[in-house]
Design brief:
With 120 residues, the chain is of the alpha/beta class. It has one domain: Response regulator (Rossmann fold, 3-Layer(aba) Sandwich). It is globular.
Length: 120
């Protein structure tokens, strides 16, 4: 079974995304901050990471940069999920190496298309 790490500090958004991923056949691990995410990544290597942009501590953009620069996590696909959904935000996410960008509230069809695009 594929595993997804959801890094999201908003309870409702985290629960909705987690439920959609579970329905798609994923085991879901969640974190609410960069520190908690790092602790989870030290223990397990997920197949996919869903990342909010606005988080306590480091931003999702900073976390993505670190993930893509670390040989242990650089090949894990990252999908941003954010209310910050301007073209500039999406371009920035793409420049940092993210494989996708979903706008909140998360749409099940959009998520399904993203998972299919990633071959997950």
């Amino acid at each position: 079974m594929n595993t997804a790490l959801v890094i999201e500090d908003g309870l409702t958004d985290r629960e909705i995304l987690s439920r959609y991923l579970q329905q798609a056949g994923y085991a879901v691990i969640s974190a609410t901050s960069s520190e908690e995410a790092q602790a989870k990544l030290d223990k397990t290597k997920p197949d996919l990471i869903f990342l909010d942009v606005i988080l306590p501590g480091k931003s999702g953009f900073e976390i993505c940069r670190e993930l893509k620069n670390d040989p242990k996590t650089s090949n894990i696909p990252v999908v941003f999920c954010s209310t910050k959904n301007s073209d500039v935000d999406k371009i920035w996410g793409d420049m940092l190496g993210a494989e996708g960008y979903l706008s909140k509230p998360i749409d099940l069809e959009e998520l399904t298309l993203t998972l299919r695009k990633l071959g997950k």
